[in-house]
Amino acid sequence: MRRAYLHFTRFPVQRKVIEVPELASRPFALVEEVRGQRRVAFASTTALKAGVRPGMTLTAATALEPVLRHFPYRPEDETRALTALGEALMGLAPGFQLRAPDGLWLDAGAAHLVGGEEQLAAQALEVCAEQGYRAHAVVASEAFTSRALARYGTRRVEVVPPGEGARELAPLPLAALEGPEGAAFSALGLSTLGEVAALPVAAVTARGGVAGARAHARCRGEDDTPFVAQVLEEVLEERVVLDWPADSFEPLRFALKTLTDRLGARLAGRRRAAVRLTFTLKLDPTGQARVPLTLARPTSQAKLLLDLARHRLEEQRLENPVAEVSVRVDEHSEDRGQQLALGDAPEGDAALEVVLSRLVTTLGEESLFAAGLETVHRPEAAHGTRAFRPPERKRGLAVDALDAGGSGAAAESDEVQPLSLVGRERPARLLASPAWLDAEVAESGRLLAARLGGKRHRVTALAGPERLGGEWWSDTPYQRDYYRVHFEGLGPAWVFRDARDGRFYLQGLFD
Amino acid sequence: MSAVAEQRAGSVGSVGSVVEQLRERIRALQAAPRRYLAVLRTGMEAVDALLPSGGFPMGQAVELCGEAASGRTSLALRAVAAAHREQRLCAWVDGPRELYPPAASALGVDLERLLIVRPKAPEQRVWAAVQLARSGAFACVVLDLTRGVGATGRIPRVALAEARKLADAAERGGGLLLVLTSPESPADGVMRLRTEARDGEGWSVEVVRSRQGGTGARAELPWSVLYPDLGLEDGGRVLDVAETAADATPDFLREQGSALRNGCGILGQRPGRDAPMPSLREGLDSAGVAL
C-alpha cells in the first residue's frame, strides 16, 4: 500500500511558536517530569544552539542559557494538534494514521486524483504551511521507508517507487532504526542502513532474534506494518489550556486564534461548515462561562470564526481569570463553498457575513429577516418573513448574458405587473395592528375629522372606498371599507370602516 | 476517414472561435471602466435637482425629517430601489416596525435584497445602523428613528456624538445612510432634508442643512409623484356604496356591545344611513313590473 509520511521537525516546538508568536527565535524548552526531575523534552533552535539538549535537566539547561523560558510538555495536547492537522489533510487523502509526537502517515491510494504522488506530497506541505507548520514528505510503499527517509533524508518531497526502498534507505545512518538494534549494529562497526541490509539474513536472525530479523528486513525495504486509519471523532471540539490564568483578553486572543485555526482546518478537511458553536471558558479556581454563537451563514473560515468569537467574548464580564478555553461545534452543515465570478472580490461577501453574524448574535435571530409577499387579501397578512439570503450579484461575464436575455427580463416584469398595481395603492407604513380612530363622523357617515396624538386633524380629501372582505370560513372573518384620507397637518392616511362594528380604524400612512 | 478528420478540424475550429470570442469579451471587460455608484437618484427630477450632487450622495449620512405622513419613507424607498437596480444590497433598520413590504415592492424595491432589522431595544437601532453602514456590504442603509403612531413616550433626540458615529460609519463603508426622523426629535450634525405634507394636492421637500450648499432650496410636488393612485386631488372621489347587506361575519362572532359609532353614533344603526334604504322590490311592484 502506498503511503505518505509527513515529518514535522520538533513538532511541539513548532506548535508552541504558532500559539505564542512572540517565542519565535527565542530560547525556550518544553519540560516534562521524569522521576521527580524536570527534564527538557524539546528545545527551540536557539536553545539548541546554546547547548541545551533533550534529556538535560532544567537546571542544567538554565545554567547554559539564563534567559531560557520553559513550558510544560503535554503529550495529549500534541496528539490533539496532530489529529487536527490530519483532519485538515483529509481533503487530499481518505485517511491518516498518527505517529505521535511528530508525524503522520497519509493514505496515498487516491494520489491520482490530485495529479500524482509528488503533487499529493507538495499539496500536503502547502496545507501544513497554511497552518504554520514546516514538514518533510515522503511517499513510499512501506511505513518504515517513508518515515526514515522523511526524518533523515535531505529532500523536502520525495517519492520512492515500489521496490526501490532498499536503494533509497542505504545511505541513511543507523539512528534511523530508532531502537536498541541500532546500537547493536553500531557496536559491530556498521554505520548505515545499507551496510546492515548487506548482512546475511541467517546470521542476523541467529544473533539478534526476531527483533534483529525485523530490523534487517526494514533495512532491505520490507515492512509489513499495517495502515490503521485514525477514527474520526463524532463531536468536533477543540481545547486550549492556558499556561497561566488570563485576566485580560489579550492572552485569550492567541488561544482563540489557535482554536479557530484548528477548528477551521478540521471543518474544511471534512468539507463541513459550522452553523452553531459553543465557547466554554473554564475559570480559575472555579466557575464556567458558556457563550453560544450562531452563524447566519455556515462557514469553515477560521478568520471569520475568530472575528466573531472575538466580538462575542470581548464583551463578556467574568468574575475569575480564564484557565481554559474550548469550543464545540453543535451543528454543522455541508460546506458548499463560494463560487466566484471573473473579477470578483470576496471581501464584500465576507463583510456581509461578519456583520450579519454580529447582528444575529447581539439582536437575536428573529430580529433580522427579509420580507416576502404572500397571496393573502388581508393587508396586514400580505407579507411574511423569511431568511435573508440575497441572490448572487451578477458580475463580469454574467452581466453580458443578462443583457442578452433582456427580452426575458421584460417578460418577467410583465408578470409582476398586476401585483405592483395593487401595491401602488398601499401605504409605505402599515401599523402592526389597526388603531381605533377617535373620529368625528357626519350624519351621512362621512369622516369629518380625527384626533391623533391629542391633535384634531380635519379631513381635507377623501377617496374610496375599496372594499376588502373575506376569510368567512375562518374564525377571524373581516369586512372593511378602505378610504384614503388626507388629514390636515398630518398627511394622507389609510383608514377603514370595519363592517363588524361600524368604527373607523387607522391602518397605515402614505409616508 | 477523411470525413472524420474534417469533422474534427471543424470542431477544433469552432472551439477556437469560441475561445476567441471569450478572449474578446474578457478584453472588453478589462477595458471598460468600472461602474462606480456615486449617487442614488430618487427618479424625481425636482428632488434630485435640490441635492448638490444630483442625488443622495454615497458615503454620507442624510436625514429626512418630517411629520408622520410627509413622504419621507417613499423617498427612502426610492433610494433603495435605485440601489437595487444596480443589484446592490440594502438594509432597513425598522424602529417603529411599520415598513409595509408590498408598498415597497411596488416602488421597485427587490425584497430579496433588502435586509430588515427590527431591534427590540430602541437604543440598539443606532448601533445596528452603524454596524451595517460600516461593513460596506450595503449600498444604502435606512435608519428609521420615528415613533410609531400608537407608541407612547418620547424618542430621545439623536445626540451629536451619535450623529458623528453615523456619518463616520457611512464614510467608512462608502454607502448611503438615510436617517428618518420626526420634527420633535431630529438628528444633529448631518445633512437634513425636511419633508412636509401641504394638502391633498401635494407635498414639499426642502434642504435645511447641507455642507455642500443648496440650503434653503425647496421643491413642491404633487402626491401623484409618490403615489400615482392616491386619488386625493380636488378633495378626492367618494363612491356612494350601499351597506354590506350580507355581512360575511357570522352572527355569533359579531360584537354586540360595540354598536356605538366611534362613541358618538346611534345605537344599532350603521353610519351613513339614518333610515334603511327603501326596498327596490316595492318600487318595482308599484310600477307593475312582473318579476
From TrEMBL, chain A:
Gene Ontology biological process terms from the UniProt entry: DNA repair
Domain UmuC: 8-144
Similarity annotation: Belongs to the DNA polymerase type-Y family.
GO terms assigned for molecular function: damaged DNA binding
InterPro entries hit by this protein: DNA/RNA_pol_sf, DNA_pol_Y-fam_little_finger, Rev_trsase/Diguanyl_cyclase, SulA_CellDiv_inhibitor, UmuC
Keyword vocabulary terms for this entry: DNA damage
Native organism: Pyxidicoccus fallax
Annotated protein name in UniProt: DNA polymerase Y family protein
One Pfam family in the UniProt entry: IMS
Residue span(s) of domain DNA polymerase Y-family little finger: 247-342
Automatic annotation (TrEMBL), chain B:
Domain RecA-like N-terminal: 32-145
Keywords: ATP-binding, DNA recombination, Nucleotide-binding
GO biological process, one term: DNA recombination
Record-linked Pfam families: RecA_N
Location of region: Disordered: 268-291
SUPFAM superfamilies given in the database record: P-loop containing nucleoside triphosphate hydrolases
GO MF terms held by the record: ATP binding; single-stranded DNA binding
Alphabetized Gene3D superfamilies for the sequence: P-loop containing nucleotide triphosphate hydrolases
Family to which the UniProt record says this protein belongs: Belongs to the RecA family.
Protein name in UniProt: Protein RecA
Source organism of the structure: Pyxidicoccus fallax
